[in-house]
Write a structure and sequence with these properties.
Number of strands: 6
CATH topology of the largest domain: Serine Threonine Protein Phosphatase 5, Tetratricopeptide repeat
CATH architecture of the largest domain: Alpha Horseshoe
CATH superfamily of the largest domain: Tetratricopeptide repeat domain
Shape: globular
Structural class: alpha/beta
Helix content: 40-55%
Largest sheet: 6 strands, mixed
Distance between the termini: 44 Å
Number of helices: 16
Length: about 475
């Protein structure tokens, strides 16, 4: 299949990028998502919570490093194939919606288009008619027939699903598409609201701008780990560079590279005063190992793949290493709780040392789940609470809800019932956006409650993470 793909396999099939209940409990086994029963089957749910304006964090790397990032993102596809020449739209970019858009989709699309206009300076707007970019919502079963491993995808030179089915490989080839005029984006209409929003962010950004994803970049949606799910300050800078008047569709790599230093100095003067700190490229073997670790199949083969990714990434000691450690920790089988704990703690320490709070929210969720499962409720509450601010700032409602569910259960066990109820209610509101279906929300909350019940039968254990 040709096209830009947002992988559904990274971080599992759970909504957004939350690992959810994948941590090992006290005996090393995985918690199960049992069907909601008793009070949980009819638990009243609060209204869905929605995020407000996205806080913007400017990129914090040198312009020299980001010039190389731009070249790699703009002149290569995710498959590794090189682009023939520089590619972008010219003039105003219209965006239309087709199919049965979920209730939150139009709101999220309009918020995204507003950000693209104000932060990236792009002439992009929502239209009800024929458009340069058409976002079509289809049942997930239809999409998966075309792209089994994708949450959503984009394709060039077409507008409709019928166009896509009838298109040839040459039509769907991005490598020679210099002046973009038509792009189609396909998103499931029955996915959780957050997944729809994430697809809109990544696919629209790549339909308009750079086409590649790079594991080496921790501050972008242009990364297959999917930790960042809304456009970042780095992403907006890359889009602003893409549409700088000093660049034109059809330029060669040399022509673009020659102009980049002056463009970045003009658009991002603070980056001129930051020393270059180039990051090693990520070999294809790492991406293949991560894809296998989060893909289908038995746990044993997936764990072996995660451990291969850890071995490949160990020399870097960066977010890629931590991400692989999280994968290994979540795949440990019975009797491997201590190994899982070491993996999660190692990942947490790397994220802390690298100043990556959103990544660290994931390790804090895993560690808080483990603490809950061994009856160390004060530590579970502390760990979960420490991950909440970054999950909120990163606008990851699925992750935020998971942390709040763990924290509320720990608070209950600590005798702080009123506090627990308030945290749980807020978490349920975020879960309706991040997880989606009411039954799935209730099931997630019940599973964490059952983990806390299990932990109540264990003496407190020593389980701590770095601050």
């Amino acid at each position: 299949m040709s096209g830009i793909v947002r992988k559904a396999s990274a971080l599992g099939a759970l909504a957004g990028v939350a690992f959810g209940l994948s941590a090992c409990v006290s005996d090393g086994t995985m918690p199960r998502f049992s069907a909601p029963t008793g009070a949980y089957a009819t638990l009243p749910l609060p209204p869905m919570r929605l995020f407000g304006p996205t806080p913007v964090t400017p990129p914090s790397r040198s312009n020299a490093d980001m010039a190389q990032d731009f070249m790699d993102l703009s002149f290569r596809l995710e498959t590794g194939r090189p682009m023939d020449a520089f590619s972008r739209f010219e003039g105003p970019i219209s965006v239309a919606v087709a199919g049965s858009a979920p209730p939150t989709a139009i709101r999220d699309l309009d918020a995204l288009l507003s950000r693209l206009r104000t932060e990236a300076g792009l002439p992009v707007y929502h239209t009800g008619g024929d458009a340069a970019i058409t976002v079509t919502f289809l049942p997930v079963s239809v999409l998966r027939q075309a792209a089994p491993g994708a949450a959503c995808f984009a394709a060039p030179r077409i507008s409709t699903w019928a166009d896509y089915r009838d298109a040839t490989g040459a039509t769907l080839d991005w490598t020679d598409y210099r002046l973009r005029q038509r792009v189609a984006i396909f998103i499931p209409d029955d996915a959780p609201p957050q997944e729809v929003r994430d697809c809109l962010n990544e696919e629209l950004a790549q339909a308009i701008g750079p086409l590649d994803d790079l594991y080496r970049l921790p501050d972008t949606v242009f990364n297959d780990d999917n930790v960042n799910s809304v456009l970042t300050g780095f992403d907006m800078l890359m889009l602003r560079v893409t549409y700088d008047p000093d660049l034109r569709p059809g330029m060669s790599t040399l022509e673009v590279a020659t102009r980049l230093p002056l463009i970045l100095a003009r658009l991002n003067p603070r980056g001129e005063h930051i020393a270059p700190a180039p990051v090693p490229d990520t070999p294809a073997s790492y991406g293949a190992a991560i894809a296998r670790a989060f893909g289908p199949g038995g746990t044993g083969g997936r764990l072996a793949a995660a451990l291969r990714a850890v071995a490949i990434a160990s020399p870097w000691n960066d977010h890629r290493t931590g991400f692989a450690l999280l994968a290994a920790g979540r795949l440990g089988g019975p009797g491997e709780r201590e190994a899982a704990l070491r993996n999660f703690q190692s990942a947490d320490a790397i994220f802390a040392a690298r100043g990556l709070p959103l990544y660290q929210s994931h390790s804090r969720l895993q560690l808080s789940l483990m603490a809950l499962g061994v009856g160390q409720f004060a530590e579970a509450e502390r760990l979960a609470a420490s991950g909440i601010p970054a999950a909120r700032q990163g606008q990851n409602a699925a992750l935020l809800a998971g942390l709040m569910f763990v924290r509320s259960e720990a608070l209950e066990r600590l005798g702080r019932g009123a506090e627990a109820a308030a945290v749980r209610t807020e978490g349920l509101g975020w879960a309706r956006y991040g997880i989606g279906a009411d039954t799935a929300v209730r099931r997630r909350l019940q599973s964490i409650h059952e983990l806390a019940v299990t932990g109540a039968g264990h003496p407190p254990a020593t389980l701590a993470a770095a601050d």
